[in-house]
Each structure stands twice: as C-alpha cells, then as structure tokens.
C-alpha cells in the first residue's frame, strides 16, 4: 500500500519536478516515530520519504505544512505539531536505538525533545526540528536523500486520529517565496516528569501578546505563568508545581497551554512528588 502511494506521488510530481508549486499531501500515522521509543510503548516505525521520487533535490526550497490533527490522550483531537529530520539514507534503526536516524543531515533548525514515557529515557537526536502550523520553509540540505516525518510526541501508545485528517503537505517553492511564518511555537518542558521544578521553553518569531497557563486534566486553570507582551526570541519559563496561591499541587498530569492571537498550543507535564 505504501509503495503504491509513493508511486502515485512520484508520478504527480514528475510532471513538475524541480519547479515551484509541485505539491503533495502525505497522510501520517499518529503512532509512527523516528525518535527513540520506550520499550513499554507501541510506536510504529516512520517511513522514509524518498525525496528524489518526489522530484525534490538538495538546494531546493521546500514548504512543510502540518494538516489536520491527532489525539494524544488527555488533550483531545487537537495536536498538529510535527517533528522532522532529513537523512542521507532510508536507514531507520530499531526503536531501542538512542539515535534511530544515523545519517541525519543538518537543515539549520533544531528541536529539543523530552524524555520518553513511562521510563523517561532520552529521545533527542541531532538535526531534527519542529514544524508547526501554518508551516515552515526549509532548504533541502546537501546530502539529503530522504525525509522522516512524525508527530511531535514522546509517548505514542495512546495516539489516535479519529477523523483521519493528520497529514503533512510538501510544496516546492521558489527562492523568493521562502520566508514563511513559523506560526505557533512548539512547547517543550525539561525535566518532565519533574520535582520540584520544570522549565517550559518556546521560541517567538516576533513580539507577541502571550498567555501561558497551567491547567489540570479537567481543564481548570491552576496557575498563570505569563500574561502580557513577550519579545521575539527564545523564552524559558519556570514552574514550581504550585498554584496561583502558592500551594503545592498533587502528583499527576497537567497541561501547559500557550495562547497567541486566539490560537493555542499544549504540552503535557507530569509532576511527581
């Protein structure tokens, strides 16, 4: 089935190989991963997307756009962030490998991924990067032959896609079109799980009015960490596991929610007392 799908994609793009505007949508499995996976998880291997088969070559500008969303358990069907890495081969090592993409190629963007659940093992690998809505334009790096795309997650067993709309759209764009808004930043938190303190990190492309709050799993706001203007650049906000009254919260899962311009991103936090 996968081979037939990519054959159809290659046929579509071969009509305009190397030209701006060539475009394809690839539906994604919310349980597929190229990061290291905890042995207690049930993630599936992410397929290697053959760039040449899609008419894409190093040096060409490529717009990556997340489409639809997936459900990762506590937050519902609203997550759309992708994690992406270029590779010089189709090699994907076993889920137990600390770096499953041994031929990863630097595209100039970098993501820091948190530890796996439930055993909290390191997942971060060189040269992977986040793509969040509305999208990110990158120049395909020298030596890249394949692309791995997966949901930006560290625990896959509870992922579902109820309306089967989770996908990535790849569009070849002209050099003059390459500046593209990055959109909402992907949130990361480290350490996570944590006790007594964690740092929530994100990056803003422009100055913006931001609201960063902690919610319990019933949706109740328990702590406001940021409410106001933030400058462009990287931000690291510390949370001590307490509510707005300074009371320590109980062990369990919480949601960090960042709102910008009426839109939001969420990441799950685990407090262990």
Which term fits the overall shape? Answer: globular
Helix amount: under 10%
Terminal-residue CA separation: 47 Å
Low-confidence blocks of residues: 1-19, 176-183
**Radius of gyration from the alpha-carbon trace, in angstroms:** 19 Å
Determine the mean pLDDT. 83
Quickly count the helices. 1
Q: What count of domains describes the coordinates?
A: 2
Briefly note the structural class of the backbone. Answer: mainly beta
Helix and strand sequence: HEEEEEEEEEEEEEEEEEEEE
Name some characteristics of this structure.
about 270 residues, mainly beta, 4-stranded antiparallel β-sheet, 1 helix, about 40% strand, disordered N terminus
In short:
By secondary structure, this protein is mostly beta strands.
Walk me through what this model shows.
- This protein is globular.
- The N and C termini lie far apart (47 Å).
- Strands 4, 8, 9, 10 and 12 form a five-stranded antiparallel β-sheet that branches. A four-stranded antiparallel β-sheet has the order 1-13-5-11. A four-stranded antiparallel β-sheet has the order 17-16-19-20, with no helix packed on it.
- By secondary structure, the chain is mainly beta.
- It has one helix and 20 strands.
- It has one helix at residues 2-14, and strands at 23-27, 32-33, 44-45, 49-50, 61-67, 70-71, 77-79, 82-87, 104-105, 129-131, 136-139, 146-151, 167-173, 188-190, 198-204, 208-216, 221-230, 233-239, 252-260, 263-271.
- The longest helix has 13 residues, at 2-14.
- It has two domains: 2-177; 188-271, Immunoglobulin-like (Sandwich), CATH 2.60.40.4070.
